[in-house]
Amino acid sequence: MVTIYDVAKETGYSITTVSRALNNYPDVSDKTKKIILEAVDEMGYFPNSIARSLTMKKSFTLGVIFVEDLGVGMKHPFFSAVIEGFKQRAEKFGYDLVFINRFIGNEKKSYIDHAYYRGVDGIIVVCSNYSDPEVVKLIESPLPSVVLDVHSDKTNVIYSNNVYGCELVIDHLYSLGHKKIAHIAAAEDTFTGNERLKGYKLGMDKYGLPINEDYIVDGGYFSYEGGYHAMNNLLKLDDVPTAVFASGDTMAIGAIKAIKEAGLKVPDDISIVGFDDIDLAQHITPALTTIRQNTELMGKRAADLLIDQINDKDEDFSTVILSVDLIDRESTKSLTD
Amino acid sequence: MVTIYDVAKETGYSITTVSRALNNYPDVSDKTKKIILEAVDEMGYFPNSIARSLTMKKSFTLGVIFVEDLGVGMKHPFFSAVIEGFKQRAEKFGYDLVFINRFIGNEKKSYIDHAYYRGVDGIIVVCSNYSDPEVVKLIESPLPSVVLDVHSDKTNVIYSNNVYGCELVIDHLYSLGHKKIAHIAAAEDTFTGNERLKGYKLGMDKYGLPINEDYIVDGGYFSYEGGYHAMNNLLKLDDVPTAVFASGDTMAIGAIKAIKEAGLKVPDDISIVGFDDIDLAQHITPALTTIRQNTELMGKRAADLLIDQINDKDEDFSTVILSVDLIDRESTKSLTD
DNA sequence: CTGAAAGCGCTTACAG
DNA sequence: CTGAAAGCGCTTACAG
């Protein structure tokens, strides 16, 4: 590897001047700068980010912390989509992404220790269940951070307008003539699960529809199996609902499976609506009616928030709420046709 | 942050001794070691990985290079599954993952420059199209690397037994009575596309089935749209095949869409087989019969290969070929029932 | 068994 | 406009 010393030797200038020329300091003569930049180009020199980080106490590195209960990690369709948007934006600003776990060597440490160990400039934390004390430590630490899908005034947060999305769902279902609308809710300790349950109730209230407690069933942590079991519970009811709104697409797909196994059809017998619009949603049969979250935008805005915080430590924390859209596909049907 | 100097001051030993105690050097007295380790624990000290990297010229960091033509990045269902396995194994050995792009600051550089800039100890490269000269540079560079889904004797490679998998497909289809079997092939400059085409032909030969050139259609780079268009071309034929084997699951799902749009049914009118067994495969209707690649194992073995190479530079390059299984679901049907 | 010193490759006051 | 020096926080010969 060619170092700054090699460039200094080659050009006859000191490493100080080479460094300054490289970093666009104004007080380098044009002639000197030209000579140095040419040599740099010719020698294929670029700085060693590690040495630079040690000096500057800044690594141009962002930590990604992925805590999810399903154990799917990067295969998580929603999270991976957000991280992709985040990555693209972060790279534009010269930041690279590094995954942060809770180990250092073989010892179990905390995420926050690992983040400091790696010297990341900030972190993005993506997680479905914020009751984890580890996650709380992360949020409250002075390390710049942006957190997805939770509300907090102790750091930057970003999430979709879950409540409004649910109202859109009820609007849609009601306009199709549905009144017996059930909800497959996510676990209570998830922020999005709570928000969506709230939105479901709000929507029902809006139309004066009674909220039947039997119609609110637990689907766990947004899993396929959770949706499947929840739907089976709904099917056991004396008065089976005509429409089911699941708190997440994956649960909706599990619910569809349960309905099919019971010998019923979607949407002919039961209409189904999901939330998220994961890639899968458009490809299943019937294609899933759902609420689209703008995952790419969420990732990009998260990057902006985080980088702003890094560059201006005194900045107040932001809360960004993204708008959502109903995507009307084939899993819902009018009752009045 | 507490540094090694703080620990030295606290315990009265030199930083040299602290460092040695921390790194389990044998020549530290048990008493000293105990004192130092206790102080370390109490003070919450852990080394700064950046300073350590600069000294040791080793970063305990592995670069992930993701080159794919679809632009889906981390959302790629097959790649992300492999990387997840890779990540889990790498973390066990104390390595963190960092994504490598082709920029340094705002300047367009090569992947390999970026890898050196970040000082990663090795790289995993995942890419569908290996004709890219950038990728060739990567493979041929002295930086330890492991490459997925390609064959090369210039680095470590790992891939599934694509040819055998295709033979399994033809075995299965033939046993169901199919003779008119078409193949939606992937682009010629993809390794897996080529291997699978080869396997298809081998399988057909085995049963003395004629290979009709009209039955081999181009599906591009494993995309949904590619499969959709390829299937439409197949449907235009005078003699439509009774079974179609697509070189990837996503293409198979696109093909199913085309068949449905033509008013035909899968598997009643046409049987479909995919390749990969992505998560989606089991959830679509009909559930997709496909060849399962063991993505998690692929990721873990890739990590082993790479870390071995890093620890023993002289080691010869390895080629690992993973076995595959046919997963029989609902998208194929016997012709003789 | 322990410590002083050098060095990893940079950046940035400080001085001229 | 340019350079010598210090320092970022570690590890590792070298010496005792």
Properties at a glance:
homodimer; 337 residues; alpha/beta; 434 Repressor (Amino-terminal Domain); Rossmann fold; 3 domains; 6-stranded parallel sheet; 4-stranded parallel sheet; 42% helix; 16% strand; DNA-binding
Please identify the top-level CATH class of the largest domain in chain A.
Alpha Beta
Low-pLDDT runs of 5+ residues of chain A are none
Output the strand order for the largest sheet of chain A: 2-1-5-6-7-13
> How many distinct beta strands of chain A?
14
The N- and C-terminal alpha carbons of chain A lie at a distance of 73 Å
Oligomer: homodimer
Give me the secondary-structure topology.
The structure is a homodimer of 337-residue chains.
Chain A: H1 4-11, H2 15-22, H3 30-43, H4 49-56, E1 61-67, H5 77-92, E2 96-99, E3 103-104, E4 107-108, H6 111-118, E5 122-127, H7 133-140, E6 145-148, E7 156-160, H8 162-175, E8 181-185, H9 191-206, E9 216-218, H10 224-235, E10 243-246, H11 249-261, E11 271-273, E12 290-292, H12 295-311, E13 319-322, E14 325-327
The structure holds a DNA duplex (16 and 16 nucleotides).
